[in-house]
Task: inverse folding
């Protein structure tokens, strides 16, 4: 299978789209002020009200509960005129910022800064992105193929079906027969590092041209992982939800 292959560096397209206007002489003017009083996102040029209108939250997905924090939409610019929008918390003046890095086999999204978890979270990978060409579930099947022989035949891709998780969340988990051999009453941790781990929140999603593996840990993250989405720039400069 072919995995996602992207460059590590990103180019932020300044002065494009709604973030700037051209004067009659052709020179760039200062960015148009946001009617909602927010500062435009530097890559997409979107105001907070515009970004929020695009990033429609799934009412069935649980939003982290954080005290004394405010939430706003942030962006990660991706290759190919695409942007990942996500909601993140600001607490005590500290913003939660996620960062992107590409690679030969997968791309990674990690903490650049964390409003809740501070320096301890910096650099921790929270999402891994794999390509879906030619097989949408190719990354999941590859993860199973890399397991020891004793586990390979008993691990399978199954719907997660957990309250508060996205409806399309998937797990790599033991079959019912294999699960019956595990210790009853204990959290299930099986099928390798990309498999089920009931001691924390981790799951797969296959959508928008990526296989996403979320590894959110055992405490509420300070960003809304279940409502992240990729948007593509249209020829007219507007942003639309990627299919």
Result:
């Amino acid at each position: 299978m072919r995995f996602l292959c992207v460059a590590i560096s990103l180019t932020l397209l300044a002065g494009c789209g709604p973030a700037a206007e051209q004067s009659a002489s052709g020179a760039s003017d200062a960015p148009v002020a946001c009617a909602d009083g927010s500062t435009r996102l530097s890559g997409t040029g979107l105001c907070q009200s515009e970004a929020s209108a695009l990033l429609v939250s799934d009412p069935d997905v649980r939003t982290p509960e954080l005290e004394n924090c405010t939430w706003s939409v942030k962006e990660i610019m991706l290759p190919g005129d695409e942007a990942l929008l996500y909601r993140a918390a600001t607490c005590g003046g500290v913003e939660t910022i996620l960062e992107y890095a590409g690679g030969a086999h997968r791309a990674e999204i990690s903490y650049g800064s964390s409003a809740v978890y501070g320096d301890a979270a910096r650099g921790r990978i929270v999402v891994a992105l794999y390509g879906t060409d030619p097989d949408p579930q190719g990354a999941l099947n590859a993860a199973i193929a890399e397991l020891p022989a004793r586990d390979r035949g008993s691990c399978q891709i199954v719907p997660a079906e957990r309250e508060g998780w996205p409806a399309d969340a998937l797990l790599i988990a033991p079959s019912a027969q294999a699960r019956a051999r595990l210790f009853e009453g204990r959290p299930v941790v099986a099928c390798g590092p990309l498999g089920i781990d009931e001691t924390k929140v981790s799951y797969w999603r296959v959508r928008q041209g990526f296989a996403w593996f979320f590894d959110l840990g055992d405490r509420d993250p300070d960003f809304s992982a279940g409502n992240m989405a990729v948007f593509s720039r249209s020829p007219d400069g507007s942003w639309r939800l990627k299919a």
Summary: Helices lie at 48-54, 138-145, 149-152, 176-179. The mean pLDDT is 88. DSSP finds four helices and twelve strands in the chain. The radius of gyration is 20 Å.
